[in-house]
Design brief:
The protein has helices spanning 3-8, 51-63, 114-120, 124-155, 164-169, 184-191, 202-205, 211-214, 234-255; strands at 10-20, 26-32, 38-39, 42-44, 66-80, 83-95, 106-112. By secondary structure, it is α+β, with helices and mostly antiparallel strands. It starts with a helix and ends with a helix. It has one domain: Nucleoside Triphosphate Pyrophosphohydrolase (Alpha-Beta Complex). Strands 1, 2, 3, 4, 5, 6 and 7 form a seven-stranded mixed β-sheet that branches.
Length: 256
Amino acid sequence: MKETEKVRALVLAAGGIVVRVGSQPLIAIVRVRRSKAWALPKGKLKAGEDTLAAAKREVLEETGHRVTVHEFLGSLSHAEDGRHKIVQFWRMQAVGGPVRKPMDDITAVKWLPLNQAIETLTRARERLFLAHVGPAAVRAARQAAREALARAAERASPAAVLREEEVATIDSEAPQPPIEPMTADLLAEVAAAEPEQPLLTESIAAIELPSVVAEASPTEDMPLDGDTSRPTREPFAAAVRAWIARQTQFLAGRHG
């Protein structure tokens, strides 16, 4: 396969785990018109577009909400129509109410508690991903709200009202080593992989998952862990191993 064809076989997308702060944090999921699937808000990058900018744009277009963007949460990778697709996600918080209607490709937006959002998602790979990173995103949102309320109490009169925008813009926790988005070098290595080789979600399979997803039924959307019916391409595995290890160590520390 020519190098240009290998690059074209790589599809980059981005999105968000979007939390709405309130008495109970809620997660945004959307229903896609064409597939009728419930999914996390995300979409493909435009030509020359930055990944983070694409994530924020796609969330606005699909949920109708402006958001503040916080830490990187991780990536999903899989094969789609014979091409490699990598979707990178950030934690986001909704600011205020909707400012526009969702794009035509989206027929509905739901704001659900974490466990209900996990159960409602159609694809197994997204259920697994949200089950793993969702608790940390919810804890961060709650911590952000507590910090904002504390700040308001210190400086405001009894009649002062905390604006929702202020809650959303205060970050969640003490600084921690961030999970790293995929680098250009790693993406280039992925592009060099054969397009027929599906990308397994190794960053998820390598980590012990919460019990909420342990009973999830496997579907065609996600290969079973340990499935040896498909060959593994060693150069790709070597390229992502260090990146996976960093994510695994970070997430394990947050769940420990």
